[in-house]
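pinned: reference chain
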Amino acid sequence: MVAFPLTFMRLRFECQAETPLRLGGWRAGNNLRGALVDVMRRATCPYSVPALAGMSVPPDPEHVATCPVCWLVAANEKPGMERRGYVLTPPLEIPELLKPGERFVFHLTLLGEAQRFLPYFVLAVPEMGRDGVGVGRGHFTLRRITADLLNGKEEEVLREGETILRPPKVSLSHTEIQNYAERMMQGWQATDIMEMRITFHTPLRLIWNQRLIKTPDFAIFFARLLERVDDLAKQFSGANQRPYEERTYLRDLSLQVRLIENDTRWIEVSSGSSRTGRPTWISGLVGFARYAAPTKIWRELLPWLIWGEIVQVGKDTVKGNGVFRLSLPGVKKGGGGGYYSTSHR
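pinned: its structure tokens
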């Protein structure tokens, strides 16, 4: 198989509520993303100033190439189908109301070339807290930033009480993904058929043949996952098209995975759109499903499923949708409070 070139940097932002804070439940990702974009537009992009936003003259190409807002946020060549160079993972399993002094965690993942914009994201988060987020515009303070190293360890990027930013020394690649998958597989018992549980923490919104998919069909889920990972690699790491033979091979493997338990439900969620001025639907599946397949099949699919955990899957991932976590019988994941942690404290 051809080497997979996508790299990533996954940052864990630990924050503390300063006033009563309502992030919005299923809309938490959308609310945090909206606050992030507002700050970055105001602080870094003159083309986002209201007086200039209606100009018919497009931004200067040199500006677009160096502006994180134009390059990462405002690009709209394919409305509704864009692949952004960042992923926002909202806080999971937090109360509806965070009281002053309580802490919560969200993650930002920068992909490929987007990692050069790390300072802009880090500077934007404290300003988000000062502006306020969610219903009632609750305020928060950034306390600490760490980078997940995928080996049970983390690297401090911003220590609590300090203002010195220490960018991660290296970004992670497919090699680290494969190593992580191998460590997970070592915890499996040697049986012919193995089960995997996938928990969908935020709405999973899949479209197949122009219709919404309201059951967790594994083959469709995996096809959309692989499509997203490949598109991100092409756009942000200069990858070539995955060979047809490899795509066919992985597709055929995914068709052998059986759904053995479905405890998901469809929830209706809408969000506001600053581009259209109308609400948009970000509804999807939440809950968990269990799947079974021969162990040799899971060995082939697992690295790509881990990529899916990192980049999220389905529609509206930029708004926090498509967050899922894998769990395998007898295998304990995580370590060091990395991105597998769901606790808000």
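why pinned: The first helix runs from residue 28 to 44. Residues 81 and 315 are 8 Å apart (CA to CA).
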